[in-house]
């Protein structure tokens, strides 16, 4: 839903991160490529710059330029000066930077302001989940658990998953009933898009389905083969 880009404020560290092959630049591009449309920039190690306002503004200017090239609108991005080591501006406003008046972000919902990283996280707008679309759940792994049976694991991309649903796995062609759905060792009555779930299936061995298969509702537009598809390809 949101990425927090941590930037080191130290002299040389920031410059290395945003250089042509730097990790900061790469991480911002990866987040955008993966569909993450909200970004928070935390400028860390500000204590090593003696909380220099000049350095903070320099980093904002440089970072705004490259996140804009990646695809983000800098006006929607809160820039927060922090010290992770000392805890400044993480949970509560710091007294070390009296010049810092807080961050501002502008979205369709309006303008939001705050001072700390926690407030920036609280200001994340929950995206609309595609619950109305047919179920699509690509498998990340398949486990055999003693006393339970076969448990495929993956993240629900679209639709919902419920116990009792009859799912099909493509391209394996296996159709079976879901006995239970679990997330973080808790039983769910329903799984939603974004949830990483494990679900127990009836009468299917671990050899019949595998990582990469896609689970879908057999009664609502099940996943099937296609002649062609449109892909977004980004070369890093």
From TrEMBL:
<dbReference type="InterPro" id="IPR009000">
    <property type="entry name" value="Transl_B-barrel_sf"/>
</dbReference>
<dbReference type="GO" id="GO:0005737">
    <property type="term" value="C:cytoplasm"/>
</dbReference>
<keyword id="KW-0648">Protein biosynthesis</keyword>
<dbReference type="GO" id="GO:0003746">
    <property type="term" value="F:translation elongation factor activity"/>
</dbReference>
<keyword id="KW-0963">Cytoplasm</keyword>
<dbReference type="InterPro" id="IPR004161">
    <property type="entry name" value="EFTu-like_2"/>
</dbReference>
<dbReference type="InterPro" id="IPR027417">
    <property type="entry name" value="P-loop_NTPase"/>
</dbReference>
<dbReference type="InterPro" id="IPR050100">
    <property type="entry name" value="TRAFAC_GTPase_members"/>
</dbReference>
<dbReference type="InterPro" id="IPR000795">
    <property type="entry name" value="T_Tr_GTP-bd_dom"/>
</dbReference>
<dbReference type="Pfam" id="PF03144">
    <property type="entry name" value="GTP_EFTU_D2"/>
</dbReference>
<feature type="domain" description="Tr-type G">
    <location>
        <begin position="1"/>
        <end position="131"/>
    </location>
</feature>
<dbReference type="GO" id="GO:0003924">
    <property type="term" value="F:GTPase activity"/>
</dbReference>
<dbReference type="Pfam" id="PF00009">
    <property type="entry name" value="GTP_EFTU"/>
</dbReference>
<keyword id="KW-0251">Elongation factor</keyword>
<keyword id="KW-0547">Nucleotide-binding</keyword>
<keyword id="KW-0342">GTP-binding</keyword>
<protein>
    <submittedName>
        <fullName>Translation elongation factor 1 alpha</fullName>
    </submittedName>
</protein>
<dbReference type="GO" id="GO:0005525">
    <property type="term" value="F:GTP binding"/>
</dbReference>
């Amino acid at each position: 839903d949101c990425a927090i880009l941590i930037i080191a404020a130290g002299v040389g560290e920031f410059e290395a991160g945003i250089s042509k092959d730097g990790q900061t630049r790469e991480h911002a591009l990866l987040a955008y490529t993966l569909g993450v449309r909200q970004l928070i920039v935390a400028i860390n190690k500000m204590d090593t710059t003696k909380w220099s306002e000049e350095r903070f503004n320099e980093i904002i200017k440089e970072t705004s330029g490259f996140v804009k090239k990646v695809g983000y609108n800098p006006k929607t991005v809160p820039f927060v000066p922090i010290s992770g080591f000392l805890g400044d501006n993480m949970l509560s406003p710091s007294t070390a930077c009296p010049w810092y008046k807080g961050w501002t972000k502008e979205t369709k919902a309006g303008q939001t302001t705050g001072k700390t990283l926690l407030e920036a996280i609280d200001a994340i707008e929950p995206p609309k989940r595609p619950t109305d679309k047919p179920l699509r759940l690509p498998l990340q792994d398949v486990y055999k658990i003693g006393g339970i049976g076969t448990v495929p694991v993956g993240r629900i991309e679209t639709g919902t998953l419920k116990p009792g649903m009859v799912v099909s796995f493509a391209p394996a062609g296996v159709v079976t009933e879901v006995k239970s759905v679990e997330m973080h060792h808790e039983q769910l009555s329903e799984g939603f898009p974004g949830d990483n779930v494990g679900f127990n299936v009836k009468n299917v061995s671990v050899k019949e389905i595998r990582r990469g298969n896609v689970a879908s509702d057999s009664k609502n537009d099940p996943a099937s083969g296609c002649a062609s598809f449109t892909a977004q390809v980004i070369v890093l």
